[in-house]
Amino acid sequence: MSLIQLKPQTAPAASGKSHLKQATQGHRFDAELVAVTKRYGTGPAAVADISLRIPRGSYCCLLGPSGCGKSTTLRMLAGHEDVSEGAILIHGEEVTHKLPVDRGTSMMFQDYALFPHLSCLDNVAFSLKVRGVATRERRAQARQYLELVQMDHLADRLPNQLSGGQQQRVALARSLITRPKVLLLDEPLSALDPFLRVKMRSELKRIQKELGISFIHVTHSQDEALALSDMIVVMNDAKIMQAAPVREVFETPTNAFVARFLGGQNVLNSNGREVSVRTDRCRLGHATGLRSVEGQIAMIEYQGNIVRITLQTPLGDEMTVLQSDTDYFAQNPQIGDTAMMSWQASDEHILAPT
Amino acid sequence: MKLSPKAVSLLQIAPMGIIFAAMVLVPLVIIFVVSFLDYDFAQVFPEIYLGSWKDVFTSQLTLNLYETTFKFVAIVWVVTFTLGFSIAYFLVFHVRSMQVRLMLLAAIAIPFWTSGPIRAVAWVPLLGREGLVNQALLGLGIVTEPVSWLMYSEFAILIAYIHLLTMPMVITISNSMMKVPRSIIQAAQDAGASEFQIIREIILPLARPGIAIGTIFVVTAVMGDFFIVKTMSGGQVNTATMAIVTELNAFQYPPAAAKSVLMLAIVLGLVAILLRFADIRKELTK
Ligand SMILES: Nc1ncnc2c1ncn2[C@@H]1O[C@H](COP(=O)(O)OP(=O)(O)O)[C@@H](O)[C@H]1O
Ligand SMILES: [Mg+2]
User: For position B113, which CATH number holds?
Assistant: First the structure.
């Protein structure tokens, strides 16, 4: 079976239900949040007045520390949580008060949420069953989706007879068979061991590219967000700090929070302004024409082709230098040494105050 | 002295084993043996007599007793299951706050802190000839004279059973339902299942252990009960268990023993079937 068959755009128009039709050509954004606020009870807002537009066919990661409102945002998109204020659009169509099934979204849950009493095949076929599709046909279709996630050989097993990674694949197939316009994933990889996490991560990206729909993926892992995203949305404290293509977020963080959270940047004061400088553009030692700061070497981590050196400045800030192993062995610094870290003025990126 | 691990575990279970043998197995064997013995109005003879067993399987009178018992079991099960499932569903999936849920559960449970006889007597002012229900019916002009079958009738017995046994159904079923993760329900909603489909396809199968345990509770309670039958029917309705008690009071031990053994076999059979739906050990540890 060719994967092209599964592409939503080429889905047979036989199914008369409008929410199965995919990717109408008229919209520019797969998902939009317009001034969305969510309050639980009377406390401070869990999500405060956020606006976001996710272009067509994007892999978008919502990144932020625990409790910043990522899951709430995702659940509002899914329709599992009421919106206090604002509007939500999917494919340009307002869905703020629609039922989950009428939105064209599908959610993949952190705990997979497979139906424990149904075989993998019947788990995947469930959405067809509730629509009244005959047993043979729905099982045949479900098998195609299990093939997509390479789980067809275990179709008859119950969920608790599968490993975490395998359950995840089944959950993915079960979400995809509803032909969602947008797939929502809440920390899908956090329950997997590191090896599987990296493997599943590339799998998710491959499937997203093949289907051409948008994935909105919640994570608190910077690595994951950088590896997967076309677009990163950094959140903190119920607000969006920055939403931009991955390279833009990494290279030109808007403020110190984004720079620190994404990593790979030193945040420092230069001529009275807060700036960020990429750790791989900083080096140990000093030369004329370079800006520099002095500190004590607190940590040296050898990572094979690069070496990560952490300096503690007299003010207590931590600075990181990423060096090639050649440079490192040439200089051979030791923990406890006093050293200079220097960078070029042109590598400074000015941060907005937070 | 060193004991083999096997001997150690045997020693460890010995106290329980001895108590179980002395208090359960030995009496059961005695009952079983007695059921095959001859008797007259005053004593049991050590002579084989199969009359008690023949009677159990052939006498129309005895068969009617079992029929009444099973009718009660069936009706009470259907009603308590329907009520128990609906109430549990409401408590678990529609009552949002845990506090309200516990308050409502307590409201169901607290009346049962009173003793059985008091609760049985308490039905009289409600269902009796001069009771609240009859007065209301008369007052509304729905009936012209008091309805007599409300109290001291099969209807009264059923009411008392249902009142008593709905709570265990609610508790065991809601216990199972509370273990269903919210995300599973949301996944079913994402798939487009209606509330009714979610109940039928997801919640009902996942609540099966609770239903099975609640059913065991109801079945054994109704089959083993004579007190409610006696008080609520005023002695006008007879069941198999009532007959056993009557025979015991008349010193007719062998037929009582035969009926008891049969009853035990039926109950054990039912429980064995129901346990196929519920892994008790898993229910207790989870
Ligand atoms: N059901 C809820 N009731 C009350 N407060 C909630 C609920 N869900 C989340 N919150 C609060 O909203 C904030 C954001 O939560 P969440 O979106 O889960 O964060 P994240 O997924 O980024 O870790 C947190 O402060 C959390 O305590
Ligand atoms: Mg979360």
Answer: 1.10.3720.10
- What pLDDT shows up at residue B285? 59
Does A68 lie in the same domain as A173? yes
Q: Are residues A173 and A316 in the same domain?
A: no
- Name the residue at shortest CA distance from atom 7 of ligand 1: A40
Amino acid B117: pLDDT:
76
Q: Which amino acid makes up residue A279?
A: T
Please identify, among A218, A250, A282, the residue that sits at the C-terminal boundary of a domain.
A250
Question: What pairing do the DSSP bridges indicate for beta strands A273-278 and A349-350?
Answer: antiparallel
For residue A98, tell me if it sits in a domain: yes
What are the chain B neighbours of A78 within 8 Å (beta carbons)? 186, 190
A29: β partners: A55
Distances (CA, A) of B154 to B148, B220, B272: 12, 19, 29
Q: What dihedral angle (degrees, nearest 10) is formed by the CA atoms of A185, A190, A196, A201?
A: 40
- Whole-number percent of chain A with pLDDT over 90: 75
Percentages helix, strand, coil for chain B, rounded to the nearest 5? 75, 5, 20
Q: What is the pLDDT of residue A14?
A: 39
Smallest Cβ–Cβ distance between A100 and the set B190, B202, B205 belongs to: B190
Give contacts of B 191-220 with A, CB under 8 A. Answer: 191-194, 197, 201-202, 205-206
**A200 and A270 co-located in one domain:** no
**CATH code at A309?**
2.40.50.100
CATH number at residue A55: 3.40.50.300
Q: How many residues in chain A?
A: 354
**A183 and A331 both lie in a single domain:** no
What is the mean pLDDT of the segment spanning A214-238?
95
Q: How far is CA A290 from CA A333, A342, A346, A347, in A?
A: 20, 6, 10, 10
Confidence bin at B281 (pLDDT 50/70/90): low
Residue from A108, A123, A126, A160 whose CB has the most chain B CBs within 10 Å, to mutate: A126
d(CA B172, CA B180): 13
* Domain co-membership, A151 together with A229: yes
Q: What's the CA-to-centroid distance between A39 and ligand 1, angstroms? A: 10
Q: Which domain, by its residues, includes A185?
A: 29-250
Tens-digit pLDDT profile for residues A261-279: 998 999 998 888 999 999 9
**Any domain includes A81:** yes
Do A234 and A288 fall within a single domain?
Answer: no
CA distance A128 to A143: 12
